[in-house]
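Weekly structure sync, notes
Attendees: PL, DS, HV (note-taker this week)

Item 1: Isochorismatase family protein
DS walked through the input record. Source organism listed as Phaeobacter inhibens. Sequence as pasted into the shared doc:
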Amino acid sequence: MSDKFSEFLTPDNAVLAMIDHQTGLLASVRDIQPETLRKNINGLTNMAKTAGIPSAVTASLSEGPNGPILSDITNVLGDTVINRAGEINAWKSPEFKAAIEATGRKKIIMAGIVTDVCLLFPALSAVAEGYDVYAVVDASGTWDDATRDAAMLRMSQAGVKVTTWGSVLAEVMDDWRNPVGYPLGGVLGGHTAYGLVYESYLAQQAQQDSAE
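Item 1 (cont.): predicted structure, written out as tokens:
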């Protein structure tokens, strides 16, 4: 029998959680190139917006050294940011947890800066409470490769699904005939090398349409 853990992601069963993608913390990331991380963050947030997936954005010490949330995120998902009172683990913030619970969804697509704290801790806590967490590691980042790898191992051991934003997009999309199929293909093309494939296809389609 299918359950929430074996079901695939859909636009109707998932919520996106973006945790502490703040300018001060982003400056400390060394396990992924800054421009690649930014593309991945934009791809993930645009995927959620295009698919109509609700989101919750949270920040820690936004007026302190961690800085404000990256404007790329608020430009796509809106200006509502849950500024935590002091909790390092976002899941311990009543406001953040309530925002997730309010969606009524048990699958959480989650990314955070840094991977081994801001992503790891709430991912473990949510899984412990019965949620199905997809940890998007390429839209997250941390101090170095060893730290990232240790966090990935710990999450995997706890039952968190470690994944990438492109894989999440394809899982949500499911079928090119889906109403959001081609728009999601455009999101993938706009933030990865798939853009060359997508551009060629669109050009071919335009030629066919003009010939008819």
